TrEMBL record:
One Pfam family, short name: TPR_12
Protein source organism: Rotaria magnacalcarata
Annotated SMART domains: TPR
Swiss-Prot/TrEMBL keywords: Repeat, TPR repeat
Stretches forming TPR repeats: 146-179, 188-221
Name assigned to this protein: Kinesin light chain
Coiled coil: none
Taxonomic classification: Eukaryota, Metazoa, Spiralia, Gnathifera, Rotifera
Record has Repeat as a keyword: yes
The keyword Oxidoreductase belongs to this UniProt entry's keyword annotation: no
Length: 245
């Protein structure tokens, strides 16, 4: 279904009325452009074809993004970054720097630097750009924003910037607790990461508190023999031992 940005002006309303009377509501931009040309509506035809061109470029950008994600799965950082950066450039040109889809590119690029290359400085640079966009463009309880906060928390944790890491984990947790069911695995993951961070800060009481919260969720959603649950149980025993000394 076609809806041009300038549909409010009189000439375009006339054109759309004509289109509905002749070929109905559903058409594609190519057909609309041809009819506008035949009608002598060259200005509207130009707008139509420019939009068709830009939408085609956005489709190419989506393809580049998908190829970049697949490259990351295969741990092929060079191939992944090539496609993700091309997707970023396309979206920046057509959507603007502050669009949420641009933030998605920065998040994925940061993820490749983090998971595949273990270049935490470069990961942090991209994730920081990513979080600024959804903070401005998305509602404060957006789960996409929570994901970016969580990635930033993990990156700061890996850099031993524990206070900054904790700040972002808590931001992610606040959104997830509000927007997700209480036993959602993403909440459990956040609890677990906060617990590990407190352990790194040698605050074993707080670490135990959050690890036990994570275990409570895991016991509801995982089988008793699951490796992740067993790992959390071992970590809790270790924390209790540390608190005795």
């Amino acid at each position: 279904r076609v809806s041009l940005a300038s549909e409010d002006d009189f000439h375009l309303k006339e054109t759309f009325s004509y289109m509905k009377n002749t070929i109905g509501d559903d058409t594609d931009l190519d057909s609309l452009g041809k009819i506008l040309f035949e009608m002598g509506e060259y200005e509207q035809g130009e707008k139509c074809y420019k939009r068709m061109r830009d939408e085609g470029k956005l489709v190419c950008g989506n393809a580049e993004l998908g190829l970049g994600k697949i490259g990351a799965v295969y741990n092929n950082a060079d191939e992944s970054l090539k496609h993700l950066e091309e997707a970023l450039h396309i979206r920046q040109r057509l959507l603007g720097e502050d669009h949420g889809d641009v933030g998605e590119c920065y998040t994925l690029i940061g993820g490749v630097h983090w998971y595949v290359l273990e270049d935490y400085d470069e990961a942090l640079r991209n994730l920081t750009k990513a979080v600024k966009i959804p903070e401005a463009a998305l509602p404060p309880d957006s789960l996409a924003l929570a994901k970016t906060y969580h990635n930033l928390g993990t990156t700061y944790d890996l850099q031993e910037e524990y206070d900054l890491g904790l700040n972002y984990f808590m931001k992610a947790l606040k959104i997830r607790e509000k927007m997700l069911p209480s036993n959602h695995p993403d909440i459990g993951t956040t609890y677990n990461n906060i617990g590990k961070l407190y352990e790194s800060k040698e605050n074993y009481g707080k670490a135990l508190e959050y690890c036990e919260k994570a275990m409570g969720i895991q016991r509801k959603i995982l089988p008793p023999t699951h490796a992740e649950l067993k790992r959390t149980e071992r970590n809790i025993r270790k924390l209790k031992d540390k608190m005795k000394h």
